[in-house]
Amino acid sequence: MTRNGRRGWPRRRGMDDGAGAVRPGAAAGPVLRAVGLARVYGEDESAIWAVDGIDLDVPAGQMLAVMGPSGCGKSTLLQLLGGLDRPTEGEVWLGGQRIDDLGERALARMRRRCLGFVFQAYHLIDELTAAENVELPALLAGASPRTARHRTAELLDRVGLADRARHLPSQLSGGQRQRIAIARALVNKPLVVLADEPTGNLDSAATLDILRLFGELRAAGQTLVMVTHDERVAATADRVVSLRDGVPADDTALDSDTGTARLGTLLNWEN
Ligand SMILES: Nc1ncnc2c1ncn2[C@@H]1O[C@H](COP(=O)(O)OP(=O)(O)OP(=O)(O)O)[C@@H](O)[C@H]1O
After folding, report:
1. Closest ligand 1 atom to 79 CA
2. For 23-79, what is each residue's pLDDT tens digit?
3. Which of 58, 71, 204, 261 sits at a 20 to 30 Å CA gap from 2?
């Protein structure tokens, strides 16, 4: 994946620490956009172009699955889209505002307010209850304790875990932990949810629970980008982008009207 013919180290753009927060709903075009996005690890002969020039538009309300073989750049792409990593080249736009050149504080604020993250390993805080894990990002984003509690109660209900609010993560199953993580991702009403292998640690039954939940989110108009290895999971999306060596090799729109039917097929796969 070393690019031939590239010389020198790409110049890093200046960072704008004073950049304002992204305004949700400010987008006229796609809610999430990548322009010429690239990320190189290492230098010179050992340079690896994990993401090698990706243009991507994600319209509001789309559920996009990113697939491809191990090492093709899926996680790197998701991290760049979510402002968890900086591109070597290119731009990321969220809600009509460029985010890749924000300063660290503005970027952190943008992530808290405008994005929700779901990881394969859940990344819940072990010492906090399920409800506290969900509430925390709301409080960090400036919500009052009352609002955070109210929103958390709504979300725990929505993910079917209202009766587990006071449980610690260690007292929950993997599927339940992931549902708490999804509730946490939603607590600040993000423009986009980014999920990296959200079903990677789960058995078939728990995977179906998560996919049903994603189906409900999609029906409610939530934009979602997920990385998955599982074709059955990807089949529930509106669109599948397959990466090879850091670039899209295939970009397929699926028939969004058949989402319910696809979930039905997945139910049969379980039986
Ligand atoms: N921090 C890093 N330092 C050096 N190389 C890295 C780093 N992170 C990723 N890479 C390399 O970048 C490439 C893309 O990695 P990435 O994790 O994005 O792939 P992936 O498609 O998500 O893989 P998987 O499906 O196995 O999780 C790989 O060749 C990987 O070895």
Report:
1. 18
2. 344 445 799 999 999 999 999 889 999 999 999 999 999 999 999 999 999 999 999
3. 58
Residue 4 lies in a domain: no
CB 188 within 8 A of CB 112: yes
Identify which of 86-90, 204-208, 258-262 has the greatest average pLDDT. 86-90
Residue that the structure tokens 């790197």 belong to: 76
We report the CATH number of the domain holding residue 161 as: 3.40.50.300
79 C-alpha vs ligand 1 centroid, how far in Å?
11
Largest Cα–Cα separation, the chain:
59
Q: Is the CB of 76 under 6 A from ligand 1?
A: yes
Tell me the CA distances in angstroms from 128 to 74, 136, 137, 141, 164, one per residue in order: 30, 9, 13, 18, 12
Domain count, the chain: 1
Is the pLDDT reported for residue 22 higher than 90? no
Q: Give yes or no for a contact between 203 and 146, defined as CB atoms under 8 angstroms apart.
A: no
**pLDDT tens by residue, 173-210:** 999 999 999 999 999 999 999 999 999 999 999 999 89
Atom 31 in ligand 1: which residue has the minimum CA distance? 71
Average pLDDT, stretch 85-111? 96
Whether ipTM > 0.85 holds is yes
Nearest by Cα to 262 from 223, 243, 234 = 234
Closest listed residue to residue 90, CA positions, set 80, 75, 82: 80
Q: Residue 22 falls within a domain, yes or no?
A: no
Distance CA 88, CA 125 (A): 31
| Within-domain flag for 17 | no
Residue 169: domain span: 58-86+98-270
In angstroms, the CA 252 to CA 255 distance is: 10
What is the reported pLDDT for 267? 53
